[in-house]
Design goal:
Blueprint (H helix, E strand, L loop, with lengths): L5 H5 L9 H8 L9 H11 L3 E6 L5 H14 L8 E5 L9 H16 L5 E6 L7 H10 L4 E8 L3 H8 L5 E5 L5 H8 L4 H9 L3 H6 L3 H14 L4 H14 L3 H4 L4 H25 L4 H13 L4 E2 L1 H8 L3 H13 L3 E6 L12 E5 L2 H7 L8 H17 L4 E9 L2 E9 L3 E7 L9 H9 L5 E5 L5 E3 L2 E5 H7 L1
Parallel strand pairs: 1-4, 1-5, 2-3, 3-4, 7-9, 11-12, 12-14
Antiparallel strand pairs: 6-8, 7-8, 9-10, 10-11, 13-14
Helix pairs in contact: 3-4, 14-15, 14-18, 15-17
């Protein structure tokens, strides 16, 4: 009976099967802002033979990205809508019985194959289907004419481990909360000139990585002049983004209390009390929450597990076992201490940052309380968030020797390094650590991120304003 009702179950998920009017009505429900990953997924479908996966934390817009890809296939590439299938394994019908779970994937593939030619299957929340990776591997190896695009929450380490069994068969696109650039593009999307200016000025990162400081200064200052009409909006966006972060659903909530409740429920409790419980089976998730709160209260500080265990009042074993899992859930970013040697430094030499500043604000109840020191922490966190998205990076680390420290060292292109120091507070004027690193490792260019409005080059140091670094690097 359930199999006979397959079409009825799929119909609500696939309105484009029912004519132009249905397609138009469906399109009106979609957000008008397209995240850059939409184009990346479309490029993968065009250029690569592998399946494509879209992973990321909860509630960052993975389903919306899939819908925008489907919209493009129908409108721009003129793909027959009958050849496009979307299904979410969140559907309770899938979990009615084990028999359904064993047969649903095969039936979905049969349905989309029936359209003829190459078809597209968009399978959302696929981690909810037991042993889903075996189904995908089967059809990929059989070379069925179906392009699979799957999505799953990276907050589930189980999904990550299952995905690894498909290495070589799948191309992963990892979707984080909105970056500052995306945040500004979203809020200024009614100003096409703003978007056009940003798209025309993407030379900053290549210039920095090539050591072209003069080119970097020219790019930033030219951009600064062109963005003068939007200066107040961008300055306001810096503060708002540091508070509200990059989870789009948060922005629509009416007040700080609702925003905090949402983040605590959707991003903290569900991850720590549900996702990690599935993997670790620890009996007291509140201990991991206590450790997580400690990390949020001490962003960018070098971690010694023994000291953290004492300060956070949790066992050292809990810290050592769950720190890698917290990183897998996209709740935190972790970077290691810089080592010029191929051998890794010891585990204790790490720093952690919240994956999104709104998480820190919600957990610590610091919403709308951004003093100078807090803005300094935010600036450092925002810079790391930007660096993580650089496709050229091999590794991001920090340099520390005695009392001297460089916030970030980007390793790229073999043994090439770009040291970056964030000096966002007025009293920050010490660049000795940066200069020492450059001299020791024969680096010709160091970058200082500041609160100033223009870029300049001074004694081998490239000074860049935070807001423009985030917009175009």
């Amino acid at each position: 009976m359930w199999l006979d009702g397959l079409h009825a179950m799929l119909a609500p998920y696939n309105p484009w099967w029912f004519g132009d009017e249905a397609v138009s009505n469906w399109e009106q429900t979609l957000p008008d802002y397209h995240r850059p990953v939409v184009g990346e997924v479309l490029g993968d479908l065009c250029d690569l033979p592998q399946m494509v996966s879209l992973t990321g934390p909860r509630r960052v817009g993975k389903t919306t990205v899939l819908m925008h890809v489907i919209q493009h296939l129908i409108r721009q590439q003129r793909i027959d809508p009958e050849r496009i299938l979307y299904f979410s394994f969140d559907d309770p019908a899938v979990h009615a019985s084990e028999d359904v779970q064993r047969t649903v994937f095969d039936r979905l593939v049969e349905r989309v194959k029936a359209a003829g030619c190459v078809s597209y299957a968009f399978l959302d929340e696929i981690q909810k289907l037991p042993r889903w990776e075996l189904f995908l591997k089967k059809y990929y190896d059989l070379k069925v004419p179906v392009r699979f695009v799957i999505s799953g929450s990276a907050s589930s380490p189980i999904f990550r481990s299952s995905q690894e069994s498909l290495l070589g068969r799948i191309k992963d696109r990892h979707l984080l909360p909105f970056s500052f650039r995306e945040y500004c593009q979203y809020n200024l999307r009614q100003h096409p000139e703003f978007v056009r200016i940003l798209d025309a000025h993407r030379q900053l990162r290549p210039a920095m990585l090539d050591g072209d400081a003069v080119g970097a200064v020219d790019c930033v200052n030219r951009l600064s002049d062109m963005l003068i009409p939007f200066k107040s909006e961008i300055d306001e966006a810096v503060v708002n983004y540091c508070i509200e972060g990059g989870f789009p659903e948060v922005w629509q909530l009416p007040n700080a209390m609702r925003k905090i409740e949402y983040l605590m429920e959707q991003q903290v409790h569900k991850v720590l009390y549900e996702d990690l419980m599935m993997v670790t089976k620890f009996r007291k998730p509140e201990n991991v929450l206590r450790f997580f709160v400690y990390l949020l209260a001490h962003p960018g500080q070098e971690i010694n597990t023994t000291k953290v265990a004492t300060d956070a009042d949790v066992e050292r074993r809990i810290i050592e076992d769950n720190l890698p899992l917290l990183e897998m859930t996209d709740l935190i970013f972790r970077i290691r201490k810089f080592s010029h040697q191929p051998l890794r430094v010891r585990q204790g030499n790490i720093k952690c940052y919240p994956a999104d500043m709104a998480l820190r604000n919600a957990v610590l109840k610091t919403w709308q309380n951004l003093d100078s020191d807090t803005m300094g922490l935010c600036a450092e966190n925002l810079v790391l968030r930007e660096l993580i998205g650089w496709p050229e990076k091999i590794e991001i680390s920090y340099f520390r020797e005695k009392n001297r420290e460089v916030d970030f060292v980007v390793a790229y292109g073999g043994n090439r390094y770009l040291p970056i120091e964030v000096k966002y507070r007025e009293r920050d004027e010490d660049y000795e650590a940066l200069k020492m690193f450059m001299k020791r490792y024969a680096v010709n260019l160091g970058v200082v991120i500041t609160r100033q409005q223009s870029a300049r080059l001074e004694n081998g140091l490239l000074f860049l304003p935070l807001r423009l670094f985030l917009l175009v690097s």
